[in-house]
Amino acid sequence: MDKRIIAIGLVLCLLIGGCATKPQDPDELKIYEQNNDPLEPMNRAIFGFNRGAYKYALNPAVKGYRAAVPDLLKTGIENFLNNLKQPIYFINATLQGDFKASGSIASRFALNSVFGVAGIFDLASREEIPVVKRDFGQTLAVWGIKNSGPYIMLPLIGPSTVRDGIGLAVDSFADPVDWILYNQGRWWAYGRTAANGFMTYENKHDLLEDMEKNSTDYYATMRSMYQQNRQKDVGELRGETVEVQAAYDFDFPDDDEEE
Known about the structure:
Elements: H1 3-15, H2 26-35, H3 40-68, H4 71-84, H5 86-95, H6 99-115, H7 123-126, H8 136-142, E1 151-154, E2 158-161, H9 162-174, H10 176-184, H11 186-214, H12 218-237
Antiparallel strand pairs: 1-2
Helix pairs in contact: 1-9, 5-6, 8-9, 10-11
């Protein structure tokens, strides 16, 4: 996604659309506060738009991709795209003061870039170098911004919060790979963003379809899943223990896992 579109989308999510009416009943108010979703009417509308886009655009593309691309080539593409994420992970790990993590990220990037043919082959995993991912939303939490702000559903991007949405925008602006690609022509950067989004959705496609079929309220299930996993990710960086329901215990944003 273009940096300006991400920033504009975040601002629009904060400034347009009606808020859910705050309930007066104590029990309903407790649920309302737990959901942390004062923009629910607008979020549900965006969620519906996203589902339509996925259904009519991404789902056929996923089926075609799976039918046409061999698994070995698919793995190489994923490895290549994941390798390009390492510089922004490294920057955030360093800003968080976690030099062990930044060392692992640097080692993975160097080994895979040089000997793994620009990351197509994940030699670092064979050498048991941990996979670590860090983003600026986590960095803000480590810096002391404990409150994530309201839950928001971003157009095409998906679930987030105010803090994580700001982090997403900052990561997009600060990503050195994007700056290099922009210097080669902005469509290279757009292509990389589109490819990352598609691969993330393709990896989660089956799981999300099952969740949709088995959820009485798909939107609420998605919200709980995102919030719990995000609280776990951020809490671990702050030295806190956060329990996640087993049904929600998977990494939503992308396919990397921290070891």
